[in-house]
Every structure is written in structure tokens, then in C-alpha cells.
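Practice record 12: protein with zinc ion.
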Amino acid sequence: MSQLEVTLTCIECGSGIHVHPSREAKNAKCDVCETLNPVTFNEDHEKGIVKDCPKCGRKDFFKQKDFNRKIGVGLFVIGAVSVPVFILLDVGFPWIYSVFFVMVFLDILLYFILPLVVVCYKCQTIFRGVSNIDDIYGFNHEMNDRIVYSDHDFQGKQLDH
Ligand SMILES: [Zn+2]
Ligand SMILES: [Zn+2]
């Protein structure tokens, strides 16, 4: 049983497609435009191990916090709306500062509780529930630039300085 959840970007319409690895699956169907996106899952994927990208076949990945942009924007909106409300209610300045304090605190808290996801440099496929997460490095700008702009293939070797 696999815990791995893979999010591909549809080759046709760019929508996110969520799939669980299965060696039998040769395609992942887009819910939006019904295009079949070719995928190649292996035994590793079924165990939650990410070494090969099921979409592009590359071996270069980075990990990052699974930060949901909606949560970030939501927090910002709550903060931006509550300040004028507090001013209108004339609750006094300490309350206004406390809103910012709570926002910063929530941001920090979120950062610590958010799980890590693995992302393919080449095709941006996202992997959640990765069991070999400790083997994967954080985002490397130089690797990203060389993979994205020069189509370089590091073949799973981390670039070190
Ligand atoms: Zn699609
Ligand atoms: Zn890929």
C-alpha cells in the first residue's frame, strides 16, 4: 500500500492531476480536459520512494515546505481587514499591534507544522508522503537554472560546492 501522492501538471491544460502510484497505470487522466498524461511508476514509487520522476523520467528533485498559498493570502487578508475595523471600533493602538503579532506568530507556527513535499526540478511534479525525504536536498538555484534553462540532467547527483 502506497502513501505517496503525486500531483502532475496536465500536458494539455495545465491543471493539477492527483494520482497514487501503481505499476499498472500507464496514464493519468486529467479530470478537467480528459487528456491522458503518460506516467511510469516503478516499485520504488509504490513504497513511497522518489528516485525517478514518473512524468519526465529525471532524477533531480528538491524538497520544500508544503505551503498553501491560500492560507498565506487568507492570513494577509484577515490582517489587512482587521486593522481598519479595530481603528473604526476605536479599540486603541495596542490591539492593532497585537493583530500583527498574532499574524507573525501564525506564520511561524505554520512554517513548523507544514509537512515537506518533494518537487521535480524539470517538470514540477509534486510528491507528498515521500519516505526517502531525508535523502533529498532543499532547493538549489544553480541546479534549477541549469535544468530549466539549459536542459541539463544531473541524474540524481546533488550539485555541491
Ligand atoms: Zn487537462
Ligand atoms: Zn519530472
